[in-house]
Amino acid sequence: MENDFSALALAGRLLLGGAFVFAGLRNIANAKLLTGMITARGVPQAGPVLWAGIVLQTVAGVMVAIGFQAAYAAAALIAFLVAGTLMFHNFWDHAGPDRASRINGVVSNVALAGSFLLVIANSL
């Protein structure tokens, strides 16, 4: 039973961390658009903030995936999710379908944060 749980935990870490590595690499390709979006939200130094976020999500994603300091990486990704939610999923500023889409983003990020809490709990 212990080996089955370990295999499932590894698969979960690979999927969860891998999704953030993929997103980080995808964000490199969309850096110009994302910088504009962050600037529009009033974030100072939008370019450096974006690149710090890309590095964080990519490196911490790898760390979660391979289980290296996974609890610290998961905590960093929770902070990343909070910041990203405030910057990109500001449903309170929107109405109609756009509001619904942004609310879905918030719910997804809450679920991801829950997954990272499980990574942290499993690492203790």
Q: Please mark out the parts with pLDDT under 50 across 5 or more consecutive residues, or reply none.
A: none
Radius of gyration over alpha carbons? Answer: 16 Å
Q: How many separate helices?
A: 5
Percent strand = under 5%
Structural class: mainly alpha
Tell me, briefly, the overall form.
globular
Specify the oligomeric state.
Answer: single chain
Report the helical percentage. over 70%
What order do the helices and strands follow?
HHHHH
How far do the termini sit from each other? 19 Å
Q: Care to describe what's here?
A:
The chain starts with a helix and ends with a helix. It is globular and about 50 Å long. Helix content is 85%, strand content 0%. It is mostly helical.
Q: How is the secondary structure organized here?
A:
Blueprint: H1 2-29, H2 31-40, H3 46-66, H4 70-88, H5 96-123
Helix pairs in contact: 1-3, 2-3, 3-4, 4-5
Question: Which tags fit this structure?
Answer:
single chain, 124 residues, mainly alpha
Summarize the structure.
With 124 residues, the protein is mostly helical.
